[in-house]
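Q: Fold this one first, please.
A: Sequence and structure below.
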Amino acid sequence: MVLTRTLLALLAIGTSLVAADAPSSENLKAEDVIAKARGAIAKEPKFLERIKGLHFEAKSADQDGKPSGYVILQIVPPFNRRQINYTADYSAEVTNCSNGLEGWTTKREVRQGGRAEMGVIGFAEVARMKDMAINDLTFYAAPEAGTGTVTSKGQNEINGRKVNSLQYSYKTGYNLIRHFDVQTNLLAATDYIDAKGEALRQQVDDTQWVEGVAFAKKETVFVGGKKVAEITYEKVLINPEVSDSSFAFPQR
């Protein structure tokens, strides 16, 4: 399951590519929605400028509230992204990691003498993970020119809240729609679109402030409109200390 989130190298809207907005008298232009959202997520603009990386830890539960796992996500510039998933009983661990050039996955049983295996992540997925890292480290900014576009999808409604929706489409196939609350301009939900056009929605139910920046605290996950999971973020670290070796291709 993919965790959301945002960070770093603040890309100026003027040097990014914003696609034409869908015509509507109610709609704000994509760059206006982005500006409002970036203004809402930080109590002061300088709070965003100082961020160089992120570390998240979250517990997940199924649709009935039963614990289903634990996730650690690290995003470090320029393109490093590592996600570690544990089963609910911490008996197994799955890691997916990419440094923007190469990627790998490891699976192991968390016990003495437990089995372990490693695999290589294909080039196309590494490129997509690179865009994921960039997207997460730019606080809603439009993709750089030549790498993708952001397009207004107009105003919509999510769980009784009016939202301004923006679709981010990258040439690598990474595709998501962010929905921003019309009243607060904070993120209300994110839809992750797969190659078949199907969406996984992470709806923000509660927000927490960390060093003057807003992050999701609780989310509900929907697939095809059906609730499938709950996510609670137990730890959010800004500018974590992560060694380069954490993203180095493991030696066989």
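Q: Good. Now the second chain.
A: Here it is, same layout.
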Amino acid sequence: MLTGHLKLLKDYFDIMFEKHCQTCGIEVDKKTAPKRFGRYFCSEDHSQQYLKKKEEYEKRMEEEEKKHPRRRGGCC
């Protein structure tokens, strides 16, 4: 049983390192929550939504790179 300062430290670390769903922000139990891409989710559906948004973002960035290619080398 923890007492005094040890209990306070444990409570502090529990709060600091609690996990949240990357889609909706709800607190999840990392022992039972699905983990995909190194992140925790409250459901498989939310992990799929995250994947879809991530793919859309990467596609937009790829299109932007094609429109405005960066110079290689130099300072800019």
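Q: Anything worth noting on the second one?
A: Strands lie at 19-20, 27-28, 35-36, 39-40.
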